[in-house]
């Protein structure tokens, strides 16, 4: 049966997931800012094999009640809480909300602030590039995972069909993605390089130091991740998305706010809480904050 999945966050990843759902004959609904009007928009996706997929997708303002079987949140980390506010005003509390943004912090805050809602979280490592407002290129095949935060019941099968793997314990996966983002995103933003260029031997010492610090912080948080494992994940994602400009590099280049607070900032904050050193992550936090001139949590 066709499932309606609302997608909050019309960036490259939100559009990629919408087109994947379409391909599996489901009905994505893109939720837009409250002041916008409902309309149908033609979207285009260039797939990894070079083929072009086109689809007309419905867009609706996020403050108007809609029928949907789940909401996928693909906003930037610092936008998730404010973007969800109008949605939470009409969404039945039992409808699953899946938080897919980079970084950590908003997931825990939202689940605590709105305990009546059905919270799930996930991560994906696909690379995607927005070419124009409604035109996206899939630039790297990734892995996709999701699982309950405080959520109960079942998620629509449509999510499995588009490649999400269910995990009973999602927190280790969120840390895994955090680790990848904490190594790749700030360095690519600072050096202005692609993900693939970061995998070259010249950057290995810096990546190793970031991995060492992160493994110690994760351990203190009860998450088992070896530094060598973190480095290996980072290198494999960097290679799988080698031509990609990370989302943080794109944000810095476009002079938009970055997710540095929810990525390096979160690592630094957790390190401080455990009395651990995270100087390399602190250095990245400072450098990217200076580059973008504006960060938000
Ligand atoms: O998540 C990403 C990002 O750019 O934010 C990766 C996986 C690093 C792909 O570029």
Automatic annotation (TrEMBL):
Protein purpose: Catalyzes the NADPH-dependent reduction of ketopantoate into pantoic acid.
NCBIfam families named among the record's database cross-references: apbA_panE
Q: Which residue intervals define the domain Ketopantoate reductase N-terminal in the entry?
A: 6-150
According to UniProt, this protein's pathway is: Cofactor biosynthesis; (R)-pantothenate biosynthesis; (R)-pantoate from 3-methyl-2-oxobutanoate: step 2/2
Q: What is this protein called?
A: 2-dehydropantoate 2-reductase
**Leader sequence segment:** none
Keyword terms of this UniProt record: NADP, Oxidoreductase, Pantothenate biosynthesis
- Homology family: Belongs to the ketopantoate reductase family.
**A cellular component term, taken from the record's GO annotations:** cytoplasm
Pfam (any one):
ApbA
Q: Does the keyword NADP apply?
A: yes
Residue limits of the Ketopantoate reductase C-terminal domain? Answer: 170-281
Record EC number: 1.1.1.169
Gene Ontology MF annotations: 2-dehydropantoate 2-reductase activity; NADP binding
SUPFAM superfamilies noted in UniProt = 6-phosphogluconate dehydrogenase C-terminal domain-like, NAD(P)-binding Rossmann-fold domains
Say which species the protein is native to: Ferrimonas sediminum
Q: Which GO terms describe its biological process?
A: pantothenate biosynthetic process
Catalytic reaction annotation? (R)-pantoate + NADP(+) = 2-dehydropantoate + NADPH + H(+)
